[in-house]
Write a structure and sequence with these properties.
With about 575 residues, the chain is of the alpha/beta class. Among the domains are: about 300 residues, ABC transporter type 1, transmembrane domain (ABC transporter transmembrane region fold, Up-down Bundle), CATH 1.20.1560; about 80 residues, 3-Layer(aba) Sandwich (Rossmann fold), CATH 3.40.50.300. About 65% of the residues lie in helices and about 10% in strands. It has 20 helices and twelve strands. A six-stranded mixed β-sheet has the order 6-9-10-3-11-12. A hairpin with a 2-residue loop joins β4 and β5. The longest helix is centred in the N-terminal third of the chain and has 50 residues.
């Protein structure tokens, strides 16, 4: 957890003032038993009311000063802890965004969300408790022992015997609970994953009437989580009663031996009261210390999980050069490219070589799982190739900054993703200064004129995930969003799958007519979507089966011919 303390650097003042306030509070508390001792031993036997009143006022003053110190400490400790959480959360979010798709795929979104929320909250709570108690509790214990020594060395031996025993209890419980809390956090990841799947896939679950099965799966995960939490809770619960028993036993011994010493004249009644008060303060401080240790135990388990994310290094390291297109080079070129996913035994793509010139439309087709999306994900460098080179504008993508590379590319992914906000807000993602005329032109090309048939037009509010739109409407809006940026390279990754054939045909015609000089990649399962492309790349199990135009491939590529036979109408089949 110490490695995370660097995120307190902007809150050094608060991190110092918080513990200092608690230290002052501890000093005022330690003075209280001495004042009470004097009231009992001096004021009461002598019947000196003025002395008793003076000591009483001093007690009130100690209480007020202690309260002021405590409130000041709480304020600064909370401010430092919240600032720590904010800094840490910002840094973690920023780091996650530097990771490539490989690391995010390997970690999983559920655990990343848990670490961004639950784990950081636990670390923040640990810092808050630490700033409030790490000086106060030890100071009270040490101060109480010293104060007790000034009263009676013999009875102070009871303090010296019982304090280490209580420490041993705290250490034993802590050592046992640390691995338990780690297991709880891992199980919480699984619960978060199930919750996310059920919320995002609620329509599918209901369509297949699997609500009962999902409830059972969720209940099973919760039962396991509950079992681990109860086990950790039982282990932690031993701490407080064990320390109370030890301290109360110590107080009994102080009273027993102290009574004898009072009868013999070695001590006065006020000395015993002061010793009991000091022992009680030791008890309360040790219990607070136990709470601190439990909080730090949880924080330590969470900190390790946070540090695991920080330890992930992006496999795709950003280049340093700005991408500028070489007019004489192809817009996109693959040179003997191979690619393997992490932990995969075989290559998803192997020996891929082709060139796409500026202004060309390139179709990519093949069976399910043949590597179409993988291939186009290598162009914006979402993944790094395992072998070979990917060149954009004549430059190796490894050499270019992400911003300059992806600034030349407009990407429409398979899953249409829209963000909560207006249509205008979503259209400005690539180009924040785009005016309404430019946005309307892009919407027209993308066949998204339906926007103007709805109330609000460009001010139409899109719900989270675009849930108030149909699948086809979402796809057309994501295409328009990519076109607003006027990219040099446009990638349509099966982005018209939800469109009817007529709309798909109109979309292809509009893109062809309005993307002059733009290199367009169309990934599709439909032959009709790519048959008019300047060249078509046919993929088969991660390899290029053939490259050519529609007519050339019908004659010379068996894989393409079979795809056409399965899709095209009888008239075309006869020609095949």
């Amino acid at each position: 957890m110490l490695k995370l303390f660097g995120y307190l650097k902007n809150y050094k003042k608060q991190a110092i003032l918080g513990p200092l306030g608690k230290l002052l509070e501890a000093i005022f508390e330690l003075i209280v038993p001495i004042i009470i001792k004097r009231m009992i031993d001096i004021g009461i036997p002598a019947g000196d009311k003025s002395y008793i009143m003076k000591m009483g006022c001093l007690l009130v003053l100690m209480g007020v000063l202690g309260l002021a110190s405590s409130l000041t400490a709480q304020y600064f400790a909370a401010k430092a802890a919240v600032g720590f959480g904010t800094e840490l959360r910002t840094a973690l979010f920023k780091h996650i965004n530097t990771l490539s798709h490989s690391e995010i795929d390997a970690a999983g979104s559920a655990t990343l969300v848990t670490r961004m929320t639950v784990d950081i909250n636990a670390a923040q709570t640990g810092v808050n408790m630490l700033l409030r108690l790490f000086l106060r509790a030890p100071f009270i214990v040490i101060g109480a022992v010293i104060a007790a020594l000034t009263i009676s060395v013999k009875l102070t031996l009871i303090f010296l015997v019982f304090t280490p025993v209580m420490w041993a209890v705290i250490y034993t419980v802590t050592k046992k609970t640390v691995p338990m809390y780690k297991g709880i956090q891992k199980k919480l990841d699984n619960t978060t994953l199930i919750t996310g799947e059920n919320i995002s896939g609620v329509r599918v679950i209901r369509a297949f009437s699997r609500q009962r099965d999902e409830r059972e799966r969720f209940s099973g995960s919760l039962d396991e989580l509950n079992g681990l939490q109860l086990k950790a809770g039982r282990a932690s619960a031993v701490m407080s009663p064990a320390t109370y028993i030890l301290v109360n036993l110590a107080i009994m011994l102080i009273i027993f031996f102290g009574a004898k010493m009072v009868r013999s004249g070695e001590l006065m009644t006020g000395d015993i009261v002061a010793l009991i008060s000091l022992m009680t303060q030791v008890l309360l401080s040790l219990i607070r210390l136990a709470e601190l240790i439990l909080s730090l135990t949880k924080a330590q388990a969470s900190s390790l999980r946070i540090l695991e994310v920080f330890a992930m290094k992006p496999s795709v390291t950003e280049g340093s050069d700005e991408l500028t297109f070489d007019e004489n080079a192809p817009a996109v070129e693959f040179k003997n490219v191979s690619f393997r996913y992490v932990d995969s035994e075989r290559c998803a793509l192997e020996n891929i070589s082709f060139a796409a010139n500026r202004g060309e439309t390139v179709g990519i087709i093949g069976g399910t799982g043949c590597g179409k999306s993988t291939l186009i994900n290598l162009i914006p460098r979402f993944y790094d190739v395992s072998g070979g080179e990917v060149l954009v504008g004549g430059r190796n993508v490894r050499e270019c900054t992400h911003e300059s590379l992806r600034g030349k590319i407009g990407i429409v992914p398979q899953k249409a993703v829209l963000f909560k906000g207006t249509v205008r807000d979503n259209m400005k993602w690539r180009c924040p200064d785009a005016n309404d005329i430019r946005i309307k032109r892009a919407l027209a090309v993308a066949q998204a004129d339906f926007v103007f048939d709805k109330d609000g037009g460009l001010d139409l509010v899109i719900e989270q995930g675009g849930k108030n739109l149909s699948g086809g409407q979402r796809q057309r809006l994501t295409i328009a969003r990519a076109l607003v940026g006027r990219p040099d390279i446009l990638i349509l990754d099966d982005s018209a799958s939800a469109l009817d054939l007529a709309t798909d045909a109109n979309l292809r015609k509009a893109i062809a007519a309005n993307t002059e000089g733009m290199t367009v990649f169309i990934v599709s399962q439909r032959v009709s979507s790519i048959r008019g492309a300047d060249k078509i790349i046919v993929l088969d199990d991660g390899h290029i089966a053939d490259i050519g135009t529609h007519s050339e491939l019908l004659e010379g590529c068996g894989v393409y011919r079979e795809i056409c036979r399965s899709q095209l109408d009888k008239e075309v089949r006869g020609n095949v």
